[in-house]
Amino acid sequence: MLTTTTRRRAGAIGMTAVAALTLAACATAGSDEAPSESASAAPAEETAAAFPVTLDTVMGEVTVESEPQRVVTLGSHEHEYLYALGVAPVAVPVSWQGYENGTGPWADEDRIAAGAEPELFEPGTTTYDAELIASFEPDLIVATYPNHTMTQEEYDLLSGIAPVVTRPATGSDGVETVEWGVSLADELTLLAEATGTTDEAEAIIEEIDAAYAEVRDAHPEWEGKTSQVGGYYEGQAFVYAASDTRNQFLANVGLDVASVEGTDAAWLQISSEQLDVLSDLDSIVWQVATTPDSRDELEKLPLFDTLGLNEKGGSIWLTDPILEGAFFANSPSSVLYSIDAFVPMLEQALDGDPATEVVEFSSEG
Predict the structure, then answer these.
(1) pTM of the predicted model, to two decimals?
(2) Over the stretch 49-108, which tens digit does the pLDDT of each residue have?
(3) Over residues 240-267, mean pLDDT
(4) Cβ neighbours of residue 195 under 8 Å, at least 6 residues apart?
(5) Do both 174 and 263 map to the same domain?
(6) Number of structural domains, the chain?
(7) Looking at the structure, do residues 83 and 174 belong to the same domain, yes or no?
(8) 54/31 same-domain check
(9) pLDDT at 46 over 80
(10) Do 159 and 193 fall into the same domain?
(11) Residue 32 DSSP symbol
């Protein structure tokens, strides 16, 4: 299904390029006059008209006076959103997976198209280095998915350098946003308003919505099926909150991710004696790529073999590090990548037949 969506996107880009070349050729053949200044200035005028803009963020209202030219991001995926919008940040955090340019291969096409070759820096896991951030001379600082909760003191300090855009105060549904749980559409919309790229954001959201709808339409039998994303950490199994971006992905393809009680926080650790709280799930995506030993540890838990999902063949083992990174990123490019990878595994896990092998995705083909 991703292949179809991607080809549509590529086809549209190709047709646009052909049309542009055709118009250029006609202009050259039919006239010696230079292109109208008013025509070339129109996009710039439209962007300029978008400013100043005041954004309602969880840290309060922030005003961006003019189109940002030097954007610095502080979190793990904001730069991928900006690449998709055609914005090239000047500095981004190093990739937690060690990738060049701060992001995985799923976002490289967007990065190249945006002309981004950002400087990389260590963002810190408990505090922000304001002096380092200031050295990049930003006119906008983006922290909609930061590496740690930003304190008021940090926000005030960074705001002395440039406007700081944190996550939106409320989502499109009018509900106060949850840390680490903002939807792609709400985060992208906010960043588009901050950078004068609202039209681009609307087109991207429409494409993502269509890709998800394509999966749901192809699998009406998934309605009512329950799922979760989990793993193993410090001797205990865990599952993420229903609002987590990874569970948002599963919900968007049509699954119920809110059936496990107690997942209002970012994640819920589950002792081995309580593992049966997961028993009624139809499927679980076990995230074990970064910690491959976790699979053995999970399968050794006393109650693991008794889980009802095993009778359904519902375990999906996420063992590919590239997919793990894309699944976590929840950016426009990573969602399309993840759809292509996950749909076949979900089809196998949710067919109700435990004899069906769930073939683990491999980015190596």
Answers:
(1) 0.86
(2) 889 999 999 999 999 999 999 999 999 999 999 999 999 999 999 999 999 889 999 999
(3) 85
(4) 67, 68, 71, 82, 85, 87, 140
(5) no
(6) 3
(7) yes
(8) no
(9) no
(10) yes
(11) -
Contact present, 345 and 313 (Cβ < 8 Å)? no
118-149 burial, b at 16+ Cβ within 10 Å, e below that, comes to beebebeeeebeeeebbebebbbbbbbbbbee
Do 88 and 173 fall within a single domain?
yes
Give the number of other Cβ atoms within 10 Å of residue 24's Cβ. Answer: 11
Examine the domain organization and report whether 259 and 164 are in the same domain: no
**Tokens, residue 216:** 């749901």
Check: CB of residue 336 under 8 Å from CB of residue 2. Answer: yes
**Domain span including residue 22:** 2-35
Backbone angles phi, psi at 280, to 5 degrees: -85, -5
Pair 159, 102 in one domain: yes
Six token digits for residue 135: 């050295």
Which candidate, 139, 186, 145, 185, places its Cα nearest to that of 161?
Answer: 139
Q: What is the per-residue DSSP string for 292-310? A: THHHHHHHHSTTGGG-HHH
Residue with tokens 């400087």: 119
Q: Are residues 160 and 105 in the same domain?
A: yes
43 located within any domain: no
